[in-house]
């Protein structure tokens, strides 16, 4: 056991070194993932990932460089938010006034469903409680008889 | 017959639910339509201006660090930005001449441009203040620039005091620079 311990340590060390990507290589998927969250500043409703513009190209290059320099993806996003404000984010952060955008559709759907259920319950109750017509006054009965007779003749 | 005229109690107030539910939406729309979707507040106001160092068109070097202690009017432009950049270029040159002896610097940063077109623009307006291209777009991203022209007014302490989107006018240049000159004395 004592003899295998150093070997094990070496193995762990080698595995750790192998697992960490060498500095200078950047996962292109990570770049795309960050770029997709950012608004292309010179476009209308396009992300930095989708825009073919020169500005978006430069922004992707900056993302790549920052990742290469060791920034985490959230730090890269924060870098852009720091300069452009939250406007740069394509989906607003769920906090403060922005919450309305996230909550309102669900609240609206819920309120609509509740309203619909109440309305349907009322309708079914009303049709069930509607009293069947049992009494017809003699005048009406006489009139119906006459009109039926007219129709038949 | 008379039963039809008496509405159930719940139905009576229920009639008002829909109009009242619409009110918040109307309020939201009223608020939304009053705001200008193109007016994007810059988070940089009041913060230190991001440093930069660029190679100028005339072969010199333009850096914010070298202008420390001066009021800096930093203008982002492009030769293809017509008409706004063409409108403000003479204003910038005129005011640079008027204020250069009072500790005011005017700096132009040309973005997303071709060199010959930019040089032609500089010649056309006889721009004598330092102008530099930003080939990698790093300075424009550092300043949160999303279009041209955009102009930043930086005070003597290196803080961004104002960001102006669109052509700089004579009045705007003078009022902003005078305000900063007054503050500093």
Q: What form of chain A results from the Cα inertia axes?
A: elongated
Apparent shape of chain B: elongated
State the total count of DSSP E strands of chain A. Answer: 0
**CATH topology name of the largest domain in chain B:** Glutaredoxin
Assign a percent range to the helix content of chain B: 25-40%
Give the class of chain B from helix and strand content and strand pairing.
alpha/beta
Assign the CATH superfamily of the domain at 23-96 in chain A. Cytochrome C biogenesis protein
Number of helices of chain B: 6
Q: pLDDT average of chain A, as an integer?
A: 84
Total helix count of chain A?
A: 6
User: What is the CA–CA distance across the termini of chain A?
Assistant: 115 Å
Q: Look at the structure and give the CATH class of the largest domain in chain B.
A: Alpha Beta
Question: Low-confidence segments of chain B, ≥5 residues, pLDDT <50?
Answer: none
Descriptive overview:
The complex is a heterodimer of chains A (153) and B (185). With 153 residues, chain A is mostly helical. Chain A has a domain at 23-96: Helicase, Ruva Protein, domain 3, CATH 1.10.8.640. Chain A contains six helices and no strands. The model of chain A has no long low-confidence stretch (mean pLDDT 84). With 185 residues, chain B is of the alpha/beta class. Chain B has two domains: 2-34, no CATH class; 53-184, Glutaredoxin. In chain B, strands 5-4-3-6-7 form a five-stranded mixed beta sheet, with helices on one face. A two-stranded antiparallel ribbon of chain B has the order 1-2. In chain B, α3 links the parallel β3 (71-77) and β4. Chain B starts with 8 loop residues before the first helix and ends with a helix. The model of chain B has no long low-confidence stretch (mean pLDDT 90). The chains are: A mainly alpha (153), B alpha/beta (185). At the A-B interface, α3, α4 and α5 of A face α2 and α5 of B.
